Amino acid sequence: MRRSCLALAMLLCIVTWSSSLAADPAPASKPKFRTAQQIIDAAPASAWRDLDPADTLYLELASGRVIIELAPQFAPQHVANIRTLAHDHWFDGLSINRAQDDFVVQWGDPDAGEKDARPLAPAKDHLPAEFSVDVAGLHFHALADSDGYAPRVGFVDGFPAGMDPATGKAWLAHCYGTVGAGRDMAADSSTGAELYVVIGQAPRQLDLNITTVGRVVKGMELLSVLPRGSGPLGFYEKPGQRVPIKSIRLASEVPAAERTPLQVLRTDTPTWDAQVEARRNRRDDWYLRPAGHIDLCNVPIPVRAPPKAK
After folding, report:
1. Domains of the chain, first to last
2. Got the DSSP string for 218-276?
3. How much is the pTM?
4. Residue-wise pLDDT tens digits, 296-307
């Protein structure tokens, strides 16, 4: 009798325990996470902007077209000089003269500073240094993360930039694809006739030491794969090693049918903030630990061809 009662009690206990398990709610489903690419793909038309042909350069090489967006808001006098040089076909027939590994590719007149140098006129042969500009009037969209090279960093009209609230100054950051105006020892020795693009790890030590004029938005692969120069600072030692420049034109001066229409994701919208956050804290299936931080130069700025009208 005692054994029967004990068995019955145990059976009731098991049934009660099983019932409690069945009553427990199912584990909460994992929050849905959108990748940066999914956010970009779903971006509304208002999150994109067209490149301005008056601020767009086409660098034509035998291998293809490199497209550069100029930044007159950061270097107005240099950009004006570059426009004049392009309008006057000054760059046509010159060359890429330097490819320094993990640093820059540079182009212009290989005889610059020599008696055979190509005259700049009607462009100016002397400009003031434009290392920074007043932040007032710029739409500076700050990045939440800290930076070792500037008190604050963020984006201005699609350009990665640094900013110092104490001085009220802002400047373009030397990220991959940034285009600058080469100079000699004197701060005001650049004219925009010698240009370089960053092809390696972001050399942010150059910030505030040289005038930056824009960034490559398409065609970086044509520059980053160029053979490295064997001379000092990566300069080509023999004329035959230089890469000829077919032409450099403002898009506004190229027939519409020959232009490359592009749109750039705006850097001042909720879409932009959402895709930056998705990159800062990666929760894709491959990632095991979100970083919780992102570097200014590790935030790519999406570019696309305009969608076809339906």
Report:
1. 36-304 (2.40.100.10)
2. E-HHHHHTSPPP-SGGGB-SSGGGSEE--EEEEGGGS-GGG----EEE-SSSHHHHHHH
3. 0.88
4. 999 999 999 999
